[in-house]
Amino acid sequence: MKVKKKKFKDRALIQKRLTLVVWTIVVVFFILILRLSYIMIVKRDEYSSRAEEQWTSEVSIDARRGRILDRNGVELAVSANVYRVDFDLNSVRQYLKNNSLTNADIAGKIADAVGMEENKVMEKLETKLASGANAGSATLIRRIEKESADKVNNLNIDGVIVSPDTKRYYPKGEFLAHVLGSTNVDGQGLTGVELQYNEYLSGVPGVRISEIERNEENLSYTISNFTEPIDGKDVTLTTDSKIQAIAEKVAEKGLVDNQAKRVSIMVMNPNNGEILAMVNKPDFDPNNAFDGFEDFSGETDGEKLQKMWRNSLVNDTFEPGSIFKVVTMVTALEEGIASESDTFECGGSLQVGSHTIKCWKTSGHGSQILPQILQNSCNVGFMELGARLGAEKLNEYIKKLGFGSITGIDLPGEAEGIVKSTNSISDIDLATIAFGQTNTLNALQLLTAVNAVANGGTLIQPHIVKEITHKDSNGNTIVDKTIEGKSTENVLSEKTCATLREYLERTATQDAGAGTFVQGYDIGGKTGTAQKVDPTTGAYSADKYIASMVAMTPVDDPQLTVYISVDEPSTGVYYGGQVASPLMKKLFSYIFSYIESPTGKASYSISKDVVIPEIRGKSVEEAKTILEENDLGCEVEGEGNTIVSINPYPGTTVKAGSKIKLTASAKSSIDNKIIMPDLAGTTVEFAINLLDNLGLQYEYEGSGKVVEQSISSGELISSGTKVKLVFKEESEY
Q: With contact defined as beta carbons under 8 Å apart, do 379 and 368 qualify?
């Protein structure tokens, strides 16, 4: 019985063990099935990719970056033809195997061909994937010249692929550098338009996928897939290279002559927000965008580099100084709180609460009417305007004209500036804001507001790009996108703008305060001198200033607006009238010369003002010649050969190209009536020559520019009449 019982126990134990084994096998199989399912379903793509990486090679093919052009099609940034070298590592390994070679056998040859260190080539040949497996491809070097590319091709190493590449090239060097910006080593935008419009300029890269033909020893690889790159689009700017070249020249002169930290110039079309020129000096060469940063201030190399690349007109903010008085004046005119005949008394300072705030002219300007406080840039007068307006109303227009928020310019990094909230403006704040201190702004905001005055009251978003285009398969230009600035109409009334433009013309000419008079052209402008804040103390610096000026022309229908700033002039003179206005005059003189050329006339419709000369008593042919020399045409009536009358009268100011009616007769009786010309702002030489030509007598006192004439312009007088002129040197402010 014991034996049977033992046998029974053994059989039961065996059965249990068999059952356990079966279940273990079932569980193991179940786990294996789950694992297999996981691999096949969940990890399929990953493992498939890993496997594919072992026998395929993928090489990215860069698209050609689009060009950047000026408004007339001048190339400013292009992609030059160079070459790149990539490794199809699967093919290279097959080549080495077929020829019983190693990486070391070919690394030196390749290094010599491209001018690299051999160890760097070895690193690329031995490139590994993240998994530790051999990589299928690697990029050795980019942007090599054709000579080096040919040397690589002549090595005839399978899997060493030479293909076209592009290198960004800026044909004009430093020209428009802060606007264009630059690209990195991979050809992607770093700054400026290159960064802002990188998406359009970059295009779409292509790809070439090769795979090993494992069953063919003699054919190491084949191309299994090829996607052609799509070239980037062209970006056309609003800038005019002729005007930009002028601005660059004037800015460089201003930098040197004033020993300044920086000079910035911007020229715009106030009617559509297009930027025609934008320059900051010193600048950099985008062909070598990392060179020269050592000359800029900063604690680190990175800070210095950013300073060099910084577009001050867009990226920097500052207290504008007296140039901001244009905003206060237009607000006062629009709200009707002051009229032209209102008088303002300036004793050199004004008591505001417990503080005495001085005018720049500490001896005072005395009694002035409204336009004169702008001409004289009288702080006291503008503090009174600010008090009349009140903080709420002044702030309303400050914000309405775009200050305190970005303009939305299509350039990176625009600074917003700081505008004090109405409820935080004290009486002292109100006084200082009115004449251009306390609030901060960027230059683009300022000129955009001035544009609204120039165009009759519309606030227009500025922009630097005009359109984006590409060529179709037939070489035709296709416009993909046209850029236009957003507009806010009726920010100011046309009447107010026209009145202020007249005041600005008086400021620039009649009082000679801005010194920007250019004979034949109506210019309105305002200078400014702003003390800079010392960042360490928070107080105004005693010797650091920004001298600036805004201007527009022609005053009756402005086609151009200009901003000039000279940061930290260090020659001992720093007022806007001393520093910025001579640069403005030079800039306009060059621009007008360009506009008068055939090329300029085709693009701009700014007509020169011409004073009709005295030609009565001359022969018809002689009269025609004189008028032609003065850009005037004529129609002749009568049968005689002597000009006896002219309509309009000599001395009348007309636009260049106007036709003058002449009467010819054989009689000796000649009309002697003359229109007294407007001589305000002209030099001694110009005024005397003109009066001599018109047959008028004269006497004068002082030197500089005409500020007074005893006979009002437009008055009908007789030949031989005597006129007295008063000349005055350009004012300091």
A: no
CA distances from 114 to 121, 135, 155 (A): 10, 22, 12
DSSP letter for 367, please: E
Domains 608-671 and 673-733 share a fold: yes
Domain ranges for the chain: 2-42, 57-173+206-235, 242-603, 608-671, 673-733
What does residue 135 show for φ and ψ, rounded to 5 degrees?
-75, 155
Q: Name the superfamily (CATH) of residues 57-173+206-235.
A: Penicillin-binding protein 2a (Domain 2) (3.90.1310.10)
Overall fold of domain 673-733: Trypsin Inhibitor V; Chain A (3.30.10)
Q: What is the C-alpha to C-alpha distance for residues 351 and 346, in angstroms, rounded to an integer?
A: 12
What is the pLDDT averaged over residues 53-70? 74
pLDDT of 46 strictly over 70: no
The Cα–Cα gap between 630 and 234 comes to 43
Tokens of 38: 């996981």
pLDDT tens profile 600-620: 888 888 888 889 999 999 999
Sole residue written with tokens 């001018």: 115
Q: Which of 341, 419, 427, 447 is nearest to 387 (CA)?
A: 427
**Residue given tokens 């026209």 in the structure block:** 498
The C-alpha atoms of residue 368 and residue 381 are separated, in whole angstroms, by 8
Taking phi first (over 0 means left), then psi (-120 to 50 degrees means alpha), and beta for anything else, what does residue 673 get?
beta
Annotated catalytic residue, options 210, 322, 377, 565: 322
Looking at domain 608-671, its CATH architecture is 2-Layer Sandwich (3.30)
φ/ψ of 506, rounded to 5, equals -60, -40
Please list the alpha-helical segments (H only) found in 56-101.
89-98
DSSP 154-193: HT--TTEEEEEEEEEE-TTTTTTHHHH--B-TTS-B-SHH
Higher pLDDT, 63 or 711: 711
C-alpha angle 704-435-382 in degrees, rounded to nearest 5: 80
Sign of the alpha-carbon dihedral angle for 529, 533, 534, 540? positive
> CA–CA separation, 576 vs 568, rounded Å?
11
β-bridge partners, 275: 268
Helix (H) or strand (E) holding 248: helix 241-257
The answer to whether residues 268 and 452 touch, using CB atoms and an 8 Å cutoff, is: no
The span from the CA of 605 to the CA of 128, in Å, is: 65
> Has 570 been annotated as catalytic?
no
Within a 10 A sphere around the Cβ of 27, how many other Cβ atoms?
A: 10
Confidence tier at 41 by pLDDT (50, 70, 90): low
Q: Which of 414, 529, 389 is nearest to 464 (CA)?
A: 414
Is the pLDDT reported for residue 216 higher than 50? no
The pTM (predicted TM-score) of the whole model is 0.82
Phi, psi of 297 (to 5 degrees): -75, 155
Residue ranges of alpha helices (H) inside 38-145 are 44-55, 89-98, 103-114, 118-125
Closest CA to 141 of 168, 113, 169: 113
Burial of 406 (0-12, 13-18, 19+ CB in 10 A): middle
Read off the pLDDT of residues 322-372 as tens digits, 9 standing for 90 and up. 999 999 999 999 999 999 999 999 999 999 988 999 999 999 999 999 999
What is the DSSP secondary structure assignment for residue 136, as one 8-state letter? S
Q: What is the 3-state secondary structure (H, E, C) of 435-473?
A: CCCCCCECHHHHHHHHHHHHHCCCEECCECEEEEEEECC
Name the class of domain 242-603. alpha beta
Q: Tell me if residue 723 falls in helix, strand or coil.
A: strand
**Kind and range of the H or E run holding 633:** strand 633-637
99 CB burial (10 A radius; 0-12, 13-18, 19+): exposed
